[in-house]
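Standup notes, protein team

Yesterday: finished cleaning the Neorhodopirellula pilleata set.
Today: DUF1559 domain-containing protein structure.
Blockers: none.

Input for DUF1559 domain-containing protein:
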Amino acid sequence: MSLSRTRPFRGAFTLVELLVVIAIIGILVGLLLPAVQAARAAARRMSCSNNMKQCGLALHNYHSTFQRFPGIGHDSASAFSILAQILPYAEQADLQDLIDFSAPIYTGTGYAFSIHPNNLQAAETRVPMFRCPSDPREGRFTEFDCDAAAGQSYQGTNVVACTGSGRDQSWDLRAKTDGLFYYGSSTAFRDILDGTSHTVVFAETLLGDNSTSSTAPIHAEDKVAWTGHFTVDNPDVESLTRGPVWSWFGYRGYAWISGKAYSSTFSTYTPPNANHSDVCQLAYGWFGARSHHSGGVNVTLADGSVRFVSESVDLELWRDAGSVMDGDVPGEL
């Protein structure tokens, strides 16, 4: 008598069960992904805030040493940025040793420029403290004030210094503005009439895309509109960007070493994260605070603290926060 063998029963998922499991996994991913993205965005914003804090502390240490704040210089080729001058006070003395402040940053005329050999290595060095981790751009610029054919480039910055409110004549850095920094400035804490906790010294900007175009871009927030050689005070900046524009430049934040207005400065004339481009006239103009953070920008105040300022902040309050010399004490940002 032979015993028959039966195959053991093997359980398996049915097609319906598989579809249900896949659907559940999809729902969980849909629920968790925004939370993960929000956590990453918060971490990047915190990292950016720490960088801004370092810059504020370095500025204080500079003032403690010289009893004044650094100035920007006297002309565009020799206008070393505020950032370049505070390097030793942020544990970056070795990098500042690469800068020859007695030589210009670049030489040349017209559109034929070359980074001065004494400052080339410094200009090409990326400084993490001056960069926001939320900005996806590489931040290497080859189209402005350098010899790209020779392989020259600048490393950019997301950190910019406040030149004032941008009201009246304060858009032109060649003369004294109502802010802490302008060409030839030598201001000190005593000049901050509105109080250090009400005065902005640093903010963020977006890195440009290293391009030039005569066509209006679809997304203009990281562009600078060159509106020609004329002067106007207290303009509607958005209207200027819709008027005659010679070129659209992607050189915002193009060189941390340079104190040029569109490279490493801003004013509080336009609101944070304005939905139009910055405007340049006579190489000066209205350059705003901008970031890739949702809802606002990080700023450093003159007391060394860092604050996240909403893009919906009252505009007059924001403008007052850029001014230090009018005695009009603004409210809390």
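Follow-up from PR in the comments: Helices lie at 15-66, 82-85, 93-96, 120-123, 237-242, 261-264, 315-322.
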